[in-house]
Specification:
It comes from Pedobacter suwonensis. Helices cover 53% and strands 11% of the residues. By secondary structure, it is of the alpha/beta class. β5 and β6 form a beta hairpin.
C-alpha cells in the first residue's frame, strides 16, 4: 500500500499548517455575518473534489490520504468508481504523482467557488485560499484551470443526487462535532486566557479525509478567520465517552491554540532561543518528524501548545481525568521526540499557580525562568 510521503510533516495533531497569505476578501457583510461565530460544514464542491481525488489511482491506493473505512466510502466507490477513467480524474492523478501537496491545492481551493445549480460560481470572499504549503507555492488556482472539467464530471456522475442522498449523514457528522468537541467552549477559554483575539472559526470536514489535514488563517480588513480542514471525530470503542471527548478535544485544541501561543512566543524569542539553544536537551532527533521543528521557538511552541491544552483540561475536567490526560500527553510528546514534556508541564503548572489571574502571555517570563534552571 502506498503511503503518503509527507505524513511526517503533519505537525502536532496530524494537521499540516498551510501558509497564511492574502487570499481572502472580507467585506462588511461577511464580517457582520461571521464575527464571533464558528461554523462546521461539509460543502458540496469540496466534497465533490474529495470524491474525485479518492477515485484516482493514487487515492485508491493510499488509505492515509483517503479514509477507506466505513459504509460511506463503499457508497462513494459504488456511485463514482465507474467514472474513474474520466480525463479529469486522470489529470488529478497525474498532479498527485507530481506532489501530494496537490491534494491540498485541489481540495483547498474549493472555497473559491460555489455551486449555482450545476455550474460553479466565483465566491466573493475566498479568492485563492490554498496558494502555498510548506515550501511549495502555486501561481494559478487549479479550480480556475479545471472549472469546466469539474462541472462536466459533476453532471455526468450525478453528484448532486449523491450529495442529496447523503445529506442526513453529513448532518450527523456535523452534530457529532458540535457535541463531541465544543469548539465554542475551547475558543471562549482561549480568548479569556490569552491576549490574542480571533473573529471567526470555520471547520470544513469530509468523511473521506484521513491523515492529510491542515489549517490556515485568513486576514483581511482587520478580520481574522481560522479555517481547519479535518476528518470526522474519532470514536474508539475501547474508550469511554469522556475519554473519546478528551481525545477529540486534544486533536482540535492543540491545533487551535497555535494561533494564541505563537504571538507571545515571538515577543520572547530572545529568551526562548537562549533557554532552548541546546537542542539535544529538548528534542530527540531520532524520533520521526522532529526535523519539522528546526528552531528553538518552534520547539518551544510545540511544548507550549500541548501544555496549554493541559491548562484547559485543568480548568474543565476533574482531577482524576486531568491526571490521566496529563500522563497521556507526556507519553505522547515523549514518543514524538519531546523528552522534557514532564518538566515543561511542571514548570507551566507552577507558573500558572503563582499567578492564576494573569493571561498566559504574561506567564512566559516566569515559565522561561523556571525552564532555564
Amino acid at each position: 500500500m502506498k503511503k503518503i510521503t509527507i505524513l511526517l510533516l503533519l505537525l502536532t495533531t496530524g494537521l499540516l499548517r498551510a501558509n497564511a497569505q492574502e487570499k481572502a476578501s472580507f467585506d462588511k457583510a461577511f464580517q457582520k455575518a461571521n464575527n464571533g461565530k464558528s461554523r462546521i460544514e461539509i460543502p458540496p464542491l469540496k466534497e465533490l473534489l474529495h470524491i474525485m481525488l479518492a477515485i484516482t489511482k493514487t487515492g485508491l491506493g493510499n488509505d492515509d490520504m483517503v479514509n477507506q473505512s466505513g459504509t460511506y466510502y463503499q457508497d462513494v466507490l459504488k456511485h463514482f468508481k465507474p467514472y474513474a477513467n474520466e480525463p479529469i480524474i486522470k489529470t488529478f492523478d497525474s498532479l498527485l504523482n507530481v506532489s501530494l501537496y496537490n491534494y491540498i491545492f485541489i481540495s483547498g481551493n474549493a472555497m473559491s467557488y460555489d455551486f449555482s445549480g450545476t455550474t460553479l460560481k466565483r465566491n466573493p470572499n475566498y479568492i485563492f485560499p490554498a496558494r502555498g504549503v510548506a515550501n511549495m507555492v502555486i501561481s494559478t488556482n487549479p479550480l480556475d484551470t479545471y472549472k469546466k472539467d469539474i462541472e462536466a464530471f459533476a453532471k455526468k456522475s450525478r453528484f448532486q443526487d449523491f450529495y442529496s442522498q447523503q445529506k442526513p449523514y453529513y448532518t450527523k457528522i456535523i452534530a457529532e462535532y458540535k457535541s463531541g468537541t465544543d469548539l465554542d467552549k475551547q475558543w471562549k477559554w482561549l480568548e479569556k486566557n490569552f491576549k490574542t483575539s480571533i473573529n471567526s472559526y470555520l471547520i470544513l470536514c469530509s468523511p473521506l479525509i484521513n491523515g492529510l489535514n491542515y489549517t490556515t488563517e485568513f486576514k483581511d480588513k482587520g478580520f481574522r478567520q481560522i479555517v481547519m480542514v479535518l476528518p470526522m471525530l474519532d470514536h474508539d470503542p475501547k474508550l469511554s465517552a469522556i475519554q473519546n471527548e478528551l481525545f477529540n478535544t486534544r486533536v482540535m485544541f492543540s491545533e487551535i491554540d497555535h494561533n494564541y501561543v505563537g504571538v507571545p512566543s515571538n515577543l520572547h524569542k530572545v529568551s526562548i532561543d537562549s533557554v532552548f539553544k541546546d537542542r539535544a536537551t529538548w528534542v530527540n532527533e531520532k524520533a520521526d518528524g522532529t526535523y519539522a521543528y528546526p528552531t528553538p521557538v518552534q520547539v518551544f511552541n510545540e511544548y507550549m501548545t500541548f501544555g496549554t491544552f493541559l491548562l484547559y483540561c485543568q480548568d474543565n475536567y476533574n482531577k482524576a481525568l486531568y491526571a490521566e490526560t496529563r500522563n497521556n500527553v507526556i507519553s505522547l510528546m515523549t514518543a514524538r521526540g519531546f523528552p522534557k514534556m514532564e518538566l515543561f508541564v511542571s514548570c507551566l503548572e507552577q507558573a500558572k499557580s503563582a499567578a492564576p489571574q494573569k493571561k498566559i502571555d504574561d506567564l512566559y517570563p516566569h515559565l522561561l525562568k523556571l525552564l532555564s534552571k
